[in-house]
């Protein structure tokens, strides 16, 4: 069986990069302390430098567009429910006025 790849949160990755940049310790030492490889920190640092806030989207962290898309879908669903309620209310009130 192959090894399963460990998944780290966006916050963990950002903190590892921050430690590498500000602690003054060698990356190899930080990696040992965090229980990860130094190549992981190098890769995360590069990704963060290239992509900024959009780095490390993962499953739990959508990009800005994905997040906006999910928000809009929720809003559409809410508005459809409101529309359905109003249709029923119009139907009920129009029967009562006859």
Your description of this structure?
- InterPro entries: Homeodomain-like_sf, RD_transcriptional_regulator, Transposase_8.
- Pfam families: HTH_Tnp_1.
- The chain is an all-alpha fold and 98 residues long.
- The chain folds into two domains: 1-61, Arc Repressor Mutant, subunit A (Orthogonal Bundle), CATH 1.10.10; 62-98.
- The chain contains four helices and no strands.
- The longest helix has 33 residues, at 64-96.
- The mean pLDDT is 86.
Topology of helices and strands:
Layout: H1 10-22, H2 27-34, H3 38-51, H4 64-96
Unreliable parts: none
CATH architecture of the largest domain: Orthogonal Bundle
Mean pLDDT: 86
The CATH class label of the largest domain is Mainly Alpha
Count of DSSP strands:
0
CATH topology of the largest domain: Arc Repressor Mutant, subunit A
Kindly estimate the percentage of residues that lie in beta strands according to DSSP. Answer: under 5%
Write the H/E string, N to C.
Answer: HHHH
Question: Residue share in helices?
Answer: 55-70%
- As a whole number of angstroms, the C-alpha radius of gyration is 25 Å
Count of distinct structural domains: 2
Strand-pairing-aware structural class: mainly alpha
Protein name: Transposase IS3/IS911 family protein
GO molecular function, one term: DNA binding
InterPro entries: Homeodomain-like_sf (IPR009057), RD_transcriptional_regulator (IPR051839), Transposase_8 (IPR002514)
Pfam families: HTH_Tnp_1 (PF01527)
